Amino acid sequence: QVQLVESGGGLVQAGGSLRLSCAASGRTFSSGNMGWFRRAPGKEREFVAAITFIRGSTNHADYVKGRFTISVDNAKNTLYLKMNNLKPEDTAVYYCASSSGAGTYDYWGQGTQVTVSS
Length: 118
Hints:
Blueprint: E1 3-7, E2 10-13, E3 18-25, E4 33-39, E5 46-52, E6 57-60, E7 68-73, E8 78-83, E9 92-99, E10 107-108, E11 112-117
């Protein structure tokens, strides 16, 4: 059973930075994908960024490209999302998720709130 625990959210002013962490247990970072998603109040959940372990490639949504960076620390079995130049529209609950690579994300964390004030 894969368990994901996010941390690092909080309240920050526009232009500030945060780093989200997702501690994973029950899976290694050697196959499949892991990703970050977010859900803003009154909106659908949306994709933020993902990493594919076999290819070692990353993918970021256009609306965060150049500001957010997904990365992993294999030794700590932890996924990160570094967020710079935050905007009020980045306010959301951020979730990390794990996929075996079959096209769907099978496991989700409980989420961490990010609030950006203007």
